[in-house]
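retry 2 of 3: previous attempt timed out while embedding adenosine-5-diphosphoribose. Reduced batch size to 1 and resubmitted. Inputs unchanged:
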Amino acid sequence: MSPPRTGPIVILTGAGISKESGLDTFRDADGIWARVNLEDVATPEGFARDPELVQAFYNDRRRGLQSDNVRPNAAHDALARLEAEWADEVFLVTQNIDDLHERAGSRNLLHMHGELLKVRCGACAAVHPWHDNLGAEHDCAACGETGHLRPDIVWFGEMPFGMERIADALDRCALFLSIGTSGTVYPAAGFVAEVERLGQAHTVELNMEASLGATLFRESVLGPATRVVPAYVERLLTDGIPR
Ligand code: APR
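retry 2 succeeded.
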């Protein structure tokens, strides 16, 4: 009996994993883009047109994230447990800008769309922690320039963070899990096709409903993340990665 395969694993998460923590997704019926025009708040053009509107949009979401009743859920906790049990084999790539994976204990983590609780200087690219009422009109603590602070978030039309590291991990993985994402936005939506092109990994989608890329996955587990993710992690820890 060969030992169970334990990795390396690449996990991609989207807004659906944080839904049961009380954070809205983007494209569900009650999602953010049903209420706000993404062109106004999630593009460089929108920020150039009305920086105050953009800062207010993200400050509102920051305060929501920092309210007492928003905390990691059982799905975040299960991914942190998997990393703790299979240290160095688990690489978590999130499209989410919340800090719930960190608060659950995940460490080998990359925010490919940036982070809500950080700001970046448009003049020197230094990244600073966000604090209440910090806006574009403030000085950059690194270069002293004024009026260049922007959310450290990747907007539509901008290059996501960490793409080389992600591509390398996808090429080497034995398991690719996609959790809580609609498979709408590239390059993340194309990760499963890249893994399947190489053909050496098992690919699984865990989502409330079939995503746009559902047919590309070898396995699909539908249901709320707080139920299906802990159960799948338990299976992995018991039986290893399916061959
Ligand atoms: N459990 C599991 N999945 C869920 C849950 C839940 N409780 N609730 C919703 N979902 C699923 C939805 O069915 C949907 O497929 O999560 C997915 C969320 O999809 P989107 O709202 O499109 O969010 P996401 O895929 O993360 O968006 C990707 O788009 O707007 C940009 O930069 C933004 O990172 C974001 C990117």
